[in-house]
Every structure is written in structure tokens, then in C-alpha cells.
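Service request form, structural biology core

Requester: graduate student, group of Dr. S.
Request type: structure prediction, single chain
Budget code: on file
Notes: please return the result as C-alpha cells.

Sequence provided:
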Amino acid sequence: MADQSTPGASSQGDTAQETSSDTSPEEGALKVGPPREAVSENASPKEGISRRRLLGTAGATGLALGAAGGAAGYATAPSDKALPLTSLGADTVMFHGKHQPGITTALHASGHLIAFDLATGAGRKEAAALLRRWSKTAQRLMAGEAATQDDTDVARDAGPSSLTVTFGFGHSFFTRTGLEKQRPVALDPLPDFSSDHLDKARSNGDLWVQIGANDALVAFHALRAIQKDAGSAARVRWQMNGFNRSPGATTHPMTARNLMGQIDGTRNPKPSETDFDERIFVPASGDPTWMANGSYVVVRRIRMLLDSWEQLSLKAQEDVIGRKKSTGAALSGGTETTEMNLDKTDADGNLVVPINAHARITRPDQNGGAAILRRPFSFHDGFDPDGVPDAGLLFICWQADPVRGFVPVQRKLDRGDALSEFIRHESSGLFAVPGGAAEGEYVGQRLLEA
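Core staff response, request fulfilled:
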């Protein structure tokens, strides 16, 4: 919700301490179109069209359906006639590359975050074998193929649906594997913040995995495969589920909204900006060398106190954020993307954008240029015994160095963000996400086999 990609931002607009970010990362490494045609190894001729062969039928009609609205196939009565995949199902993100997928990829409709701890007695050798298995599985699933072993068939009928799987290492991972000398300084524990109400059981971890897809079953299929691949090498520490608006759900492309109803993501850094890589990714010449082209991710579960928020008037909500709820435009005027005028006053001489407005505080020019790439998910995990919704934002932000990104922004938010009264930080994690794996490599190989 932050006006800029900052920790006090929420999922898709300028609104939450960590629910903020002014622009959803739409510019991803997305390769649109069906994967190469092939018959699944798990399908016999009697089983009919396999998952990958079905993808091959998407062809030219897939994009046409997507352009026309993608929902046309659902408007008619059920039929035995086979329909090609729409572009939504056929979209594929590449596993191998300079950076790991799931960082600049457009927001996914469904996602899972899961942290693991290495099992007692497991060390560097077991970690390397695990990352090798995970990378192989991720590559296959992202290409629309079945898992190598014991595939559950949950995603058999679906295309890749822009699936991405991203891997990271926590501070404790390096102690468990005897690689303390390779642990980056940037991975030092985050400082305490006054707004923290952290549950240690749902924070940190040796290993972190982010899964995202535009189909919930495809995302769950990947989650299950990753968990099964962990085997006896690692156990689940915590897991969280999230969602965003589905692609094509609005009449025209737009920045998404979070559970407070705010447009969230307007000022997120864009890959087209000249300093984007400098802010988000570790340089190729960086230290340690195994983190070249990688990034650091801060993950926070931010509870939104929706009952209190929804009691505010529309004007009060807009004053807390500093932006119009309807359009995302700054209170100083213009459209969603119009530069905010921080000095503009009303007829009584009061600042139009309040001094403690979330969008004002999170701006890079108010934080020494600090900026982060926010790529969050909303969550709703039911209700407390008294009927209060357990809902909010799975805040995920990326930066080349959290000391220059997340930390300074969150410190400033901690000192006087109007949104702080309506959110609560309940868990936290910081992970080093190495660069993408080259063909023939697995993620983290340059660390684990150095």
C-alpha cells in the first residue's frame, strides 16, 4: 500500500505500511504462448490428450481468446468438444535465466510462501541434493510437464498458467551447512520495529520457497511437489497462502487493489527505469560472488485491522493513505501516475496530502532514495473466535540490499505513519535469493559447490 515500493506498503496501492507500493510489477520475464508439443511421459495412448500435448493445441486461437476476453468458453453450455487452452493457461515463464523467476514476473492470482528448516543432521551435501531436486521439479512444472516422480495429477488438465518457483536462503542456513564465511552481510537480522508483533514460529527459516501461478490448482500442485521433494532432508517451518485479482477480471488492465480497497502498487520501480537493476539486484561484481544477479527479499505477514479501517469515512481513509480510493490519484490532484505535490495546501493553509499520509512517507525522495520492489499477495485465513477477520497482506519486497531498501523506509514508517494504527506486523523473514540458474545448473549451485 505504499506509494512507492516501500515497506510500509500493501499489496497493490498506496495504503499499508507494508501494504504499499505504487506499481505492480507488470513487466515480467513472461513468454506468452504454448510450450513445444510433446506427449507426457506419464500418459499412455489410452489416456487421451496429455497435459503437454493439450498445450500444443492452444496455437493461434489461445491468444485470440485471451484478447477477446478469455471467458468466452465459459458462456456456453458444457460440450464434449475439446476446447484449446486460453492464453491465461498457456503463458509460460522461463526457469533458467539471469535472475530467478517470480521477482519481476507480473502479479499472480494465486500464491504460496513456504519456509523449511533442514532436518537434524542434514548439512551442505543434503542441501545441495535438495536444491538439485527442487530445481528439476520447478523447471518441469513451469514448462507444463508433470513432476518426475509421484505426480499427483492435480494440474494434469491445465497449462503452466505463468507458474514460477523461487528459492532463497535464510540466515540460519549458512550455519547449518557450514558456510558461515559465505553468508552475506546484507543477510544480517533485521532491526526491531515498534509496530512488530512477530510470531517466531512463523518467521525466518533455513530455506524459503515462493510459488505463484494464475491458476490455484497449478499453484497447489507445485506446492505439493516441492513439499514432497523435501523428503527427509527438510521439514516445513511455516506456510502461507495468498491471492490477487485474476488477470482479465477488469475491463482494462489496471493496478490491483488490496483488502482495504486501495489501489496498491502505483509507484513500484519498473524494469524500464535506468536504475532498476541497481536498486533491485546484486551486481555481477557484487560480494559474495555467488549472489551475482540475485536479490534480497523481505517477507512479512501484515494483518489488516479491517473492522477498524472500514469504520472510517471515505475522506478519513484517503487522508491516511494520501490518495483517492477510487482512482489512486494523489490528493494533490491529477491521475494515478501524476507526481504528488507534497507542498500543496487547501484554502485553510493545511497540507492537502497530510504530513503522516502513508503515500507521502514511503516516497523515495522522503527516504534518501530508498526504494523496494513490492510483489505481495493478499490473504484471508478465516476469523478469530470473536468474528474478527484474520486477513491482510503477505508483504514481499525485493532489493539489492535491505539496509538501503526496506530498513530505512520501515524505520520512517515506524515513526509516524497514519496507516500503522490499522495494521499489525505478525511475522517476518529475510532471505538471500541467488541469481537464476543457467542451463544445466540448479539454484544455489555456485554457493553449495564452490
